[in-house]
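FORM 12-B: Structure-to-Sequence Request
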C-alpha cells in the first residue's frame, strides 16, 4: 500500500484526501439536478460500481436505494476466489480473510447402503484446487460485504454515500442529445414527502435493482427462463447438533426426504442450511404453500438421520422456488442500431438463478467491475463511447454460461442417488459434477473472446499460464527495492488503470542494452509509445498505463541504480520517486513465477492486463508497434 505521495498526512491511510466542492448529503438536502452516473440499487453489483466511481471525484456519481438503510442479515453469503482477487484491488481482502469462514473441504453425504434411512459420508473434495488462486473461497454475511464497499465509498475523495429511500419509477432516454440524455423519475419512499417525486438527469444509468428491476423494464428488457418447480428453504441458525461435519460445507442426499446443504458461516457458531422442501405444480409458487421455519427444521431433521439439530436461534429464513432466467438485453442500445448505450443492467436485474452454486453475488459484482472502468475511460474522455458496447457483449456471454451451468447443477443436486452410487460401485454423479465445476464455481472460467479489448493468441506460447481473455493469474515475486515477498497481482488496484507486466528474458538485467531497458526507454520517450500517446500533460507517467518489470535474477544480483527511469518514476504533487515497479523471482521458496505461469525464460514477454484484471494481450518484449496498435484500438490520443 502506498501513501504520502502528495505529502504527509497523519491518520488512517485508507481515508483519501477529500475532493473540494462535494455535494452535501442528508435526508433534508436536495437531490442533484444532473449527474454523470446514476446507479439504482445498493446490492453487491451497485456498491461494487459505486466504490470504483467514488475514486474519481470529477465523475458525479449518485446511488439510490428504495430501502431506508443497508440490510442487516440474510441474502447471499458465498464469495468465490475470483471475487476475493477483486477485493484485493479494493483494499479489503485481508479484512475479509480475517473475519470470514474459509471453505476448505466440501463433504458429500448419501444414504447408508446398509440402512438407507440413515446418511453416511460418501466422499470429500478439496474445495479450492492447489494454485488455482492465492485466495480462499469464503462465506460472509452479505450485509457485512455491503459495509466494506460503503467504507471504501465513504473514504474516497468524493465521500460518496447512498441516497436511501428513493425508488426509480420512470426512465426515458433522449437520443437527440449528449447532454445528460437520461431522465430518471425518483419517488420518495421514506414517507417524509408523501410519495413526492424528483427528476434527475444523467449521462448514464446502471440498474442494479434486482430481479424486478424498474430500469430493465424501462428499456424493454424481459427476464426469460424456466423454473424447476421445487420449493427450497434457506435458514441462518445458531444450533447444536451431533452431525460431525457441521463446520464443513456439506451436500447431503437422503433416500426419500430430499437434499440439504450445510454452509458454515463466519464467527464459529452460525451456519446456513438450504433445505429441499416440496415439489411444486407448474402453475404454483413456493409462497402459496405457506411453509414456515418450523417446516424447514423438521425437514432438515428428517434428512440428516441418524443425526439431529437442536436450533437455539433463527437469525434469518426464507422460502424460494428455483428459477433460471436471463434478460434479452443488458443495455438500451437497439440491436444493430449503431447507437452507443446509455442505460445498463447488472446482476439480478439481467440474470437470475438458484443460490446453491454460490454464483449470484459473485457474477453480479463481476458485471459492474467490467463496466466501471469503461465508464471511467469514457467520462474522462480517454475512450470513445463505443467502448461501452463491449459490456453487454462480454457479460451476456458469461451470464448465459452461468445460467446453463446452474441449471444443470440444480438438477444434479435434486436427482435421487442410484444404488451403484450408494454402494460405492461408481463415483456419485454429484461429486463428479462438483469436481468438474470447480473452475466455474471459483469464478475462474470466464474467458472473453477476441475484440478490441482482447488481443489475438498469436504469441500465447510466451506465457502459457496467462491465457488471453482470462483473469491474470497471480504468483509470488520479490520486490527489488526492499526484498519484499508478495503476490505480483496485488499491485493492481481498482483504479481504472491498465497494467503492463514486462517479464525479462534469461540474459536480461538492468544494462542499457537489455530488452527491458530498451522497452522502458521506448515507452517513456517515443512519440508512438502508448504511455506517451495516451498520458495527458501534467499527469503522472503511470496515470493510464502502469508498467512493472519482473526479472529472473534475485534482488541482490540486480543493480537497482541502473534500473530504467520508467521503473523509478517521479510522481505526485511532490515528484517523489516510486520504488515499487521492479520485481524478481521469489527465491524464498514460494515458487518461481516464470515456471508457475509458463513464461518463456529465454525471450521473456509482455503481459497486458485490463483494469478489471483480465489478460488483454501477450506480446514479445520488442513488439513495440503491436503494443502501440493495441492501445490505439480503444484509447484516444491525449
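FORM 12-B RESPONSE
SEQUENCE OUT:
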Amino acid at each position: 500500500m502506498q501513501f504520502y505521495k502528495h505529502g504527509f498526512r497523519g491518520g488512517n491511510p485508507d481515508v483519501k484526501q477529500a475532493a473540494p466542492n462535494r455535494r452535501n448529503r442528508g435526508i433534508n438536502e436536495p437531490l442533484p439536478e444532473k449527474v454523470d452516473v446514476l446507479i439504482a440499487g445498493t446490492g453487491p453489483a451497485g456498491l461494487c460500481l459505486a466504490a470504483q466511481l467514488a475514486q474519481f471525484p470529477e465523475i458525479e456519481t449518485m446511488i439510490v436505494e428504495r430501502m431506508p438503510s443497508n440490510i442487516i442479515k440474510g441474502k447471499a453469503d458465498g464469495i468465490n476466489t475470483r471475487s476475493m482477487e477483486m477485493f484485493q484491488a479494493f483494499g479489503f481482502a485481508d479484512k475479509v480473510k480475517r473475519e470470514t469462514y474459509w471453505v476448505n473441504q466440501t463433504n458429500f453425504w448419501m444414504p447408508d447402503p446398509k440402512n438407507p434411512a440413515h446418511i453416511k459420508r460418501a466422499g470429500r473434495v478439496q474445495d479450492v484446487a492447489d494454485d488455482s488462486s492465492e485466495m480462499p473461497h469464503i462465506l460472509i454475511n452479505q450485509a457485512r460485504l455491503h459495509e466494506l464497499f460503503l467504507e471504501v465509498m465513504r473514504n474516497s475523495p468524493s465521500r460518496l454515500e447512498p441516497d436511501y429511500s428513493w425508488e426509480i419509477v420512470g426512465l426515458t432516454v433522449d437520443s437527440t442529445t449528449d447532454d445528460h440524455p437520461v431522465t430518471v423519475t425518483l419517488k420518495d419512499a421514506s414517507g417524509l414527502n408523501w410519495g413526492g417525486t424528483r427528476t434527475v438527469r444523467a449521462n448514464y444509468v446502471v440498474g442494479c435493482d434486482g430481479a424486478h428491476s424498474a430500469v430493465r423494464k424501462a428499456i424493454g428488457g424481459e427476464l426469460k427462463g424456466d423454473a424447476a418447480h421445487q420449493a427450497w428453504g434457506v435458514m441462518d441458525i445458531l444450533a447444536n447438533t451431533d452431525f460431525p461435519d457441521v463446520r464443513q460445507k456439506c451436500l447431503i442426499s437422503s433416500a426419500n426426504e430430499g437434499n440439504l446443504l450445510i454452509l458454515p458461516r463466519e464467527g464459529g457458531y452460525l451456519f446456513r442450511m438450504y433445505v429441499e422442501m416440496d415439489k411444486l405444480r407448474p402453475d404454483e409458487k413456493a409462497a402459496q404453500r405457506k411453509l414456515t421455519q418450523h417446516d424447514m427444521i423438521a425437514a432438515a431433521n428428517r434428512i440428516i438421520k441418524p443425526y439431529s439439530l437442536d436450533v437455539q436461534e433463527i437469525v434469518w429464513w426464507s422460502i424460494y422456488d428455483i428459477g433460471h432466467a436471463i434478460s434479452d438485453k443488458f443495455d438500451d442500445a437497439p440491436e444493430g442500431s449503431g447507437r452507443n448505450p446509455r442505460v445498463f443492467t447488472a446482476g439480478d436485474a439481467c440474470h437470475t438463478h438458484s443460490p446453491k452454486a454460490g454464483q449470484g453475488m459473485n457474477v453480479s459484482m463481476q458485471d459492474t467491475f467490467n463496466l466501471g472502468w469503461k465508464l471511467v475511460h469514457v467520462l474522462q474522455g480517454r475512450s470513445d463511447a463505443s467502448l461501452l458496447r463491449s459490456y453487454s457483449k462480454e457479460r451476456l456471454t458469461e451470464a448465459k454460461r452461468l445460467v446453463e451451468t446452474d441449471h444443470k447443477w440444480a438438477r444434479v443436486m435434486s436427482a435421487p442417488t442410484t444404488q451403484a452410487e450408494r454402494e460405492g460401485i461408481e463415483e456419485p454423479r454429484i461429486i463428479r459434477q462438483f469436481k468438474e465445476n470447480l473452475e466455474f464455481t471459483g469464478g475462474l472460467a470466464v474467458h472473453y473472446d477476441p475484440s478490441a479489448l482482447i488481443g489475438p493468441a498469436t504469441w500465447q506460447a510466451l506465457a502459457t499460464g496467462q491465457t488471453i481473455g482470462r483473469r491474470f493469474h497471480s504468483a509470488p515475486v520479490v520486490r527489488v527495492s526492499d526484498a519484499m515477498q508478495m503476490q505480483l497481482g496485488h499491485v493492481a488496484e481498482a483504479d481504472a488503470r491498465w497494467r503492463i507486466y514486462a517479464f525479462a528474458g534469461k540474459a536480461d538485467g538492468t544494462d542499457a542494452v537489455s530488452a527491458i531497458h530498451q522497452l522502458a526507454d521506448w515507452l517513456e520517450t517515443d512519440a508512438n509509445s502508448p504511455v506517451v500517446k495516451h498520458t495527458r500533460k501534467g499527469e503522472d507517467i503511470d496515470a493510464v498505463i502502469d508498467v512493472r518489470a519482473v526479472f529472473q535474477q534475485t534482488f541482490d544480483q540486480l543493480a537497482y541504480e541502473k534500473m530504467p527511469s520508467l521503473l523509478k518514476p517521479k510522481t505526485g504533487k511532490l515528484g517523489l520517486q516510486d520504488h515499487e515497479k521492479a520485481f524478481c523471482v521469489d527465491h524464498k521458496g514460494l515458487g518461481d513465477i516464470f515456471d508457475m505461469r509458463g513464461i518463456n525464460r529465454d525471450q521473456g514477454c509482455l503481459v497486458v492486463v485490463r483494469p478489471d484484471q483480465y489478460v488483454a494481450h501477450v506480446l514479445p518484449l520488442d513488439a513495440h508497434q503491436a503494443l502501440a496498435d493495441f492501445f490505439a484500438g480503444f484509447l484516444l490520443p491525449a
